[in-house]
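Support request from a user on the community tier.

User writes: "When I paste my structure tokens into the form, the page sometimes reloads and wipes my input. The last time it worked, I copied everything first. Here is what I submitted, just in case something in the input itself triggers the reload:"
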């Protein structure tokens, strides 16, 4: 109540021109803050890419091995990528907001999408601070570990889903209003997966020809059995198995990757003097020299 009265008082006693200037000033502060964050995160990602390139070259030259994609991604912090995207959207949305307030543009939809998506990504980025507490960070670890298998599994499931969408659109389109277009067929089948509109979908085909009626029953029964009882169960099993693996690693320790084992070979502290480099040598090669010999 107090905040509402303060807002009304501010609107009454502060001139409209001053109010507009304060909002523009606030937007400029947001743009400058996001721009600074964007520059720093981009610099960190760029440094990680350079270090990744040097490590790949070093392993290929001295060990005659190829570095896997998972090891390459260990040099790049995914949270920085998320921050870069959110900062870019925030800057673009704030600029559009200033243009809209100055009556130069009227595209509210694009501005709201940019600012809304940026806000969502910012709140998701807050979860990175939970990494200091392993028990609370288990959700991110599970999603990170299960993502590759989930993407491959979802790709196969989408192919089967599209096949049912095209089949329902072609066969049941003239007889059922929920399958009149491809988009409507996709909406209807997605609702069936979640248990919605099952009875109405069956009921609307009750008075059709016997051949269409029989095909519709086989079509819907097979779709529900395949996606509800098999595909969704297998997808949940992938997440559950990954979750149990993460819990096992938290209790007994995760196995070291080749990159982590390579770094663990260097047991000299940073102040030992063995990491001193001259102007012509590469920083990464000097860092890894004790590990080679």
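"...and here is what came back when it finally went through:"
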């Amino acid at each position: 109540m107090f905040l509402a009265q303060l807002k009304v008082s501010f609107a009454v006693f502060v001139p409209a021109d001053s109010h507009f200037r304060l909002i523009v000033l606030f937007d400029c502060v947001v743009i400058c803050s996001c721009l600074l964050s964007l520059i720093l995160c981009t610099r960190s990602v760029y440094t990680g890419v350079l270090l990744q390139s040097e490590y790949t070259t070093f392993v290929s030259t001295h060990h005659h091995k190829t570095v896997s994609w998972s090891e390459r991604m260990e040099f790049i912090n995914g949270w920085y990528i998320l921050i870069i995207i959110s900062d870019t959207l925030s800057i673009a949305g704030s600029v559009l907001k200033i243009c809209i307030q100055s009556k130069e543009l009227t595209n509210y939809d694009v501005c709201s999408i940019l600012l809304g998506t940026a806000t969502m990504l910012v709140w998701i980025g807050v979860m990175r601070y939970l990494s200091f507490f392993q028990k609370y960070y288990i959700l991110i670890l599970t999603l990170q570990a299960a993502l590759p298998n989930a993407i491959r599994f979802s790709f196969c499931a989408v192919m089967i889903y599209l096949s049912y969408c095209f089949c329902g659109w072609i066969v049941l389109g003239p007889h059922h209003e929920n399958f009149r277009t491809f988009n409507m067929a996709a909406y209807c089948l997605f609702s069936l997966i979640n248990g919605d509109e099952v009875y109405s979908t069956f009921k609307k085909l009750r008075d059709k020809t016997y051949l269409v009626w029989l095909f519709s029953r086989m079509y819907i029964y097979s779709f529900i059995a395949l996606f509800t009882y098999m595909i969704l169960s297998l997808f949940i099993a992938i997440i559950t198995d990954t979750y149990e693996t993460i819990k096992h690693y938290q209790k007994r320790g995760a196995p070291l990757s080749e990159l982590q084992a390579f770094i663990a070979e260097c047991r000299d502290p940073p102040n030992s003097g063995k990491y001193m480099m001259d102007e012509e040598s590469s920083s990464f090669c000097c860092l890894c020299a004790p590990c080679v010999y």
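Agent notes: The reload is a front-end session timeout and is unrelated to the input. The radius of gyration is 28 Å. Residues 133-255 form a domain with the Helix Hairpins fold (CATH 1.10.287). Escalated to web team.
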